[in-house]
Amino acid sequence: MQFKNYSLMLFAVLLMACGSNQDAQETPAEYPVISVSRSTIETTESYPATIQGRQVVELYPQVSGTISKLLVKEGERVKQGQVLFIIDQVPYQAALRTAAANVNAAQAQVDVAQLDYDSKVILFNEEVISEYDLAMANNTLAIAKAGLEQAKAQETNARNDLSYTEVKSPCNGVVGTLPYRAGALVGPSISQPLTTVSDTELMYVYFSLTEREMVSRMQQQGSFNKVAEAFPPVSIQMANGNNYSLQGKVESISGVVEKSTGALSARAVFPNPDGILLTGSTGRLIVPQTHKDVIVIPQTATYEIMNKTYVYKVVDGVAHSAIISVQSLSDGLNYIVVSGLNVGDIIISEGAGYVREGMEIQPKKE
Questions:
Q1: First and final C-alpha spacing in the chain
Q2: pLDDT at residue 24 is higher than 50
């Protein structure tokens, strides 16, 4: 009798368990859903970048000698034509005086030869001397004039050499390191430049575009020449993570794909009135992008199988998988849907990886 009662109780428990399982299976799973729509969004793309002054000039002396004066400091801002170094001028001043004296001597020889020639012309006309004597006088005058031109050329060279003893800045900019000090012997063949001057009023920011991205941009713009013009104003994120206050413009793009990187070199230009951007520094170029009239969905609404991206559409309360084509966004949170969804489709927005084909779905109430 006890065994019979126990069997009845066990049967009742199993019956209740089966009933509760049926209830669980009949209850649709709750998942958050969204209705697909189109919108316009603003995103950014960033590229590693290097920063260079518009012009970086290495200064080498054009004459040899010891540095007699050093007139600038490292990091000092200088103007075009400002004297930075003076090389010992004494020997070059002496050479210039010698050259000037030679010019005066040569001029005197020309004057003497000219007087001799003029007198010979008169004597020849009076048939006192022969044509040979006149020709000799003319040749002597020509030689004297050639000697004068040679002396003048030497004077010009001496004057230039003296001017080269003052090493001047070729542009407005910032002075680099100064490896040579007063008293150092320098010359055109020194291994290191006297210094560098970086023109930093405008800064060039170099970055790279992948071949794939460049082809896409060319297809959008219709030609290679229009790609740089189509870039919006860009920003630069400096090494400390802060954005530079002024915007720049993409100015040029190389027409050659580098074999080693598979990328094209591009250049943006930024104003730098306060000298905040430094030659040789690094940062990230920030390019804003506007995506108009696109379908955007969260990445949490997708899952991947065999490199294909799927979502679950909810149709009449039932989940149906669909393959979609997407474009990643820089925010790392959303996708732009290129194909596979239409406006008005209802999709599961979160937890798609736990859903199964044909599962009944109850939209989750917020």
A1: 55
A2: no
Euclidean distance between CA atoms 304 and 23, whole angstroms = 32
CB 217 within 8 A of CB 231: no
Asked if 201 and 273 touch (Cβ cutoff 8 Å), the reply is yes
> Cα–Cα distances in Å, from 366 out to 34, 39, 94, 298, 339?
12, 22, 94, 17, 28
Reduce the DSSP state of residue 173 to 3 states and report it.
Answer: strand
- Beta-bridge mates of residue 173: 78
Biggest alpha carbon distance in the chain? 174
- Comparing CA positions, the residue from 182, 172, 176 lying closest to residue 195 is 176
Q: Is the pLDDT of residue 296 over 60?
A: yes
Cα separation, 27 vs 264, in Å, equals: 57
Predicted confidence at residue 259, as pLDDT, reads: 85
To the question of pTM greater than 0.85 for the whole model, the response is: no
User: Is residue 323 a contact partner of residue 309, using CB atoms and an 8 Å limit?
Assistant: yes
Closest CA to 186 of 61, 287, 85, 69: 61
DSSP state of 300: G
Task: Tell which residue, 324, 277, 272, has the closest CA to residue 296.
Answer: 324
